[in-house]
Specification:
The complex is a heterodimer of chains A (136) and B (82). By secondary structure, chain A is mainly beta. Chain A is built from two helices and eleven strands. Chain B has 82 residues and is an alpha+beta fold. Helix content of chain B is 49%, strand content 21%. Classes of the chains: A mainly beta (136), B alpha+beta (82).
Chain lengths: 136, 82
C-alpha cells in the first residue's frame, strides 16, 4: 500500500479521512506529516469545521508541550483513518487513538510518529524533487 | 452508496483539491497572505482574516463548513514550528 502526499511550499501533507463515533465526527483532514511529534492530532481549525467545540469535549486528557506554552488535549480512542492509495483503493488505518489539540487557529492537524510506528509506515520525503509518500 | 465507496469517492475529490492547492500554493500565497481560505472544487471559495468569520460565512452561504478544505495561508514572514 502506498499513499501519496503533497507539498504546501516545502511542508509535507497527507490527506486522510477521519471517522469516530465518540465524539461523532467525520472529515477529510490535510495532515502535516511531523516526525517530531509524538502524537497525531486534530487542530482547532479542523475541529471548528466539524462543529466540534473544546467546551463540549469534557475534561481534557492532559496537555501537549511545544516550544512555548502547554495546551490541552483530548483523546479520541477509536478513530478510523482512511486514505486513497495510489492504486485507487481505500487504505484503512485503525481503530486507533488520536487527539484533539487546543492549538492556535493557524496550526495544522498533525500526523505524528505514533501512526507511522503503529502501522509500520515508511515515510519517503524528498523536498527537492517533490516526492512524498507513505508506504507499508 | 456503501459508506466505504462514498469515502473513497470523497477522498479522490479531496485529493484533486489538495493537488491543486499544492500546485498553486505560491500564487494563492500572494493573493491571500495571512488569510484563512476555504477550498473546494479546485477553487478558493471564501477567504477571511479570522477562522471564526470564515466558518460563519461558510455556514451562511453553503450550510456545512465540513465540506471544505480549510487552511491558513502564511505570508513570507510567517514561521511555523510544531
Amino acid at each position: 500500500m502506498r499513499i501519496d502526499g503533497y507539498f504546501r511550499g516545502s511542508a509535507p501533507y497527507i490527506l486522510l479521512s477521519i471517522k469516530s463515533d465518540r465524539p461523532k465526527i467525520r472529515r477529510q483532514i490535510n495532515f502535516l506529516v511531523d516526525t517530531g511529534s509524538d502524537i497525531t492530532g486534530i487542530s482547532m481549525k479542523d475541529c471548528y469545521a466539524m462543529g466540534l467545540s473544546f467546551n463540549n469535549l469534557g475534561r481534557s486528557a492532559g496537555s501537549i508541550s511545544g516550544l512555548a506554552d502547554k495546551a490541552r488535549r483530548w483523546e479520541i480512542n477509536r478513530a478510523e483513518l482512511r486514505a486513497v492509495s495510489t492504486d485507487n483503493k481505500l487504505a484503512k488505518l485503525g481503530p486507533t487513538k488520536i487527539y484533539v489539540m487546543e492549538t492556535t487557529p493557524d496550526c495544522p492537524s498533525i500526523l505524528g510518529r505514533d501512526i507511522l510506528e503503529e502501522y509500520g509506515l515508511k515515510l519517503v520525503c524528498d523536498i527537492k524533487n517533490k516526492i512524498l509518500y507513505l508506504e507499508d | 452508496m456503501k459508506e466505504e465507496t462514498l469515502v473513497l469517492e470523497e477522498l479522490k475529490v479531496g485529493t484533486k483539491d489538495l493537488e491543486w492547492f499544492s500546485n498553486n500554493f505560491f500564487e494563492i500565497k500572494k493573493k491571500y497572505p495571512k488569510k484563512f481560505v476555504a477550498i473546494k472544487d479546485q477553487n478558493v471559495v471564501i477567504s477571511a482574516s479570522k477562522l471564526e468569520v470564515l466558518i460563519k460565512l461558510l455556514k451562511e452561504k453553503f450550510g456545512n463548513p465540513n465540506d471544505f478544505l480549510i487552511d491558513f495561508i502564511p505570508d513570507d514572514k510567517y514561521i511555523l514550528v510544531v
